Amino acid sequence: MLGYIAAILPLYIFVYLPVSNTLFGTSQKPxxxxxxxxxxxIATNEPLSCPTHKYNTHILSQEPLVIYIxxxxxxxxxxxxxxxxxxxxxxxxxxxxxxxxxxTKIRHSEVALIDRDDAVRCIEHRARSFQGWRPDxxxxxxxxxxxGVGGHYTHHYDWxxxxxxxxxxSTFMVYVDAKCEGxxxxxxxxxxxxxxxxxxxxxxxxxxxGSEVKDKxxxxxxxxxxxxxxxxxxxxxxxxxxxxxxTWHAGLPLLSGWKVGLNIWSWGPARRSD
Length: 274
Prior knowledge:
The chain is of the alpha+beta class and 274 residues long. It contains three helices and 18 strands. The protein has helices at 2-24, 75-85, 118-130; strands spanning 56-62, 65-70, 90-91, 94-96, 99-101, 107-108, 110-113, 138-139, 143-147, 152-156, 166-182, 185-191, 207-208, 211-212, 220-224, 231-235, 249-251, 254-269. β4 and β5 (99-101) form a beta hairpin.
């Protein structure tokens, strides 16, 4: 038996391995690293039957991809979100490194981490469907944000760049309720579209210093009006995983009234290059 093994071993080393490596490669590629998320942070994706929901989309920018969505929420969904948020609102915080604190000069609002009932889970599914049901995409648990007079969030990014494995790959800013003056969502680094036909002016601020601007194609900066039930979607990361600097944005101060928003953040592979 030992003599048989001794005779076969050279054939395996000098004949089979070279041929096998030529045909199939030297070894299997290592499995891609999978980032595991805490279930208290990421919404699980169980099957769920949701009612049909229709919305309209308008592409503002292709790179980065920015899409305005009419009727992302139904009136009943808006009412429901307001109801389940009411007793959960707490002062919003700002995180810098390992420190989290309340800093109203930067972020002045209230936030509510809402329960995942069937209505909320259907909104999560809608966000997944909008992005093509990507298997590597995970929805962060949904939060509503409430702003009163003077409420705001200074310019910031939703992506962090802190991890080479995962980051917030996209954002939905959904207007749950908006009975206010001011309070728009500003992107100062996104180019204003041609508003000469005023089609975009239903959703964008088309006036500067009180004067109407008929053609702002060369101007930088757009501000989305807060309109109940509508949403703005944008991608945060380039294909190589680096963040789009154009997604620097702010929630402008409310001059009167109130606004409630819904944040839908999607996490996925950062794919960062060296």
